[in-house]
Amino acid sequence: MKISKEILVAVMAPIVIAACLGTLFWPKGEDRSLTKPHEALGYTLADDLAERLGKGSRIVVFTAVAEPNTPVAIQSKSFTDRCRKVGLEVVFERKLARFEQGRDDPQKQLPAEVYLTNVEVYSDVDAFVSFVGYPRLTPREARSLPDSFPRMIAVSRSANEIRDMLRIGVLEYAVLPRFAFPAPDAIKGDSRQSWFDRYFQRVDSIEDLPLGPREMPRSH
Q1: CA angle 130-132-133, nearest 5°?
Q2: pLDDT for residue 149
Q3: Model pLDDT for residues 197-216, shown as the tens digit of each residue
Q4: Any residues with CB less than 8 A from the CB of 141 and at least 6 apart, and which?
Q5: Could you count the other beta carbons within 10 Å of the beta carbon of residue 69?
Q6: d(Cα 163, Cα 210) in Å, to the nearest integer?
Q7: In 3D, which of 187, 98, 111 has the Cα closest to residue 154?
Q8: Phi and psi at residue 64, in whole multiples of 5°?
Q9: pTM for this entry
Q10: Per-residue model confidence (pLDDT) at position 173
Q11: Edge-to-edge strand ranges of the sheet holding 58-64
Q12: Which of 57, 140, 151, 204 is deepest in the core (most CB within 10 A)?
């Protein structure tokens, strides 16, 4: 049976598009132009914490079991490597398996039960850093938090319920894919801060949030 050109194009186009997006979203380790934004994120995050907290500060890291060339793995490795150089102590690195998160994208949500367990066990550390999103606590779970607990810096691809988590103090700030102008291409330079600013954006308060969709698009 002869397949028409139109049918062949219709069948192959989605496959080609998916392959291209896969290359963009899950960069190959050897392609520096794709790994640089993720390495920059981890690096600048460690520098910011060192400046905020000081040398010797103790941190718990949440990340995912992932292939070395994926964004979550690149970001968390860059962060922990830089922590050693700037004098931050990573006392525990919790790697979540896919079944614990129940989602294809590992950077959308830290399970609330994982967060609450670690608040109890590591209540004396200086900060939590999550590369797998932030917890979305119910009002009852939020009321169960102690008077004093480590604040969290979270890298996330979702802004769902972020206002509530900022308001109750779970989040110190979040790092989201860039959603505001100037457009990423307008930020020039090859410094780590430039790479970070081109692809990511920090949200410290409710006023920083966009009015649009709460699900952030993948920026690269």
Answers
A1: 80
A2: 93
A3: 889 999 988 777 765 444 44
A4: 112, 116
A5: 16
A6: 11
A7: 111
A8: -125, 155
A9: 0.78
A10: 94
A11: 89-96, 58-64, 127-130, 152-155, 171-177, 200-203
A12: 57
Q: Is the peptide bond before 182 cis (omega within 30 degrees of 0)?
A: yes
90 DSSP assignment: E
Q: Regarding beta strands 171-177 and 200-203, do their DSSP bridges make them parallel or antiparallel, or are they unpaired?
A: antiparallel
Structure tokens at 93: 């690195």
Distance CA 182, CA 47 (A): 24
- Residue 127: how many other CB atoms lie within 10 Å: 18
Structure-token pair, residue 187: 């930020």
Domains recognised in the chain with CATH numbers:
5-208 (3.40.50.2300)
Name the residue type at position 185: D
Token pair belonging to 94? 């919790």
How far apart CA 19 and CA 14 sit, in angstroms, is 9
Q: Which amino acid is at 90?
A: V
Q: pLDDT tens across 81-107, in order?
A: 999 999 999 999 999 988 777 667 788
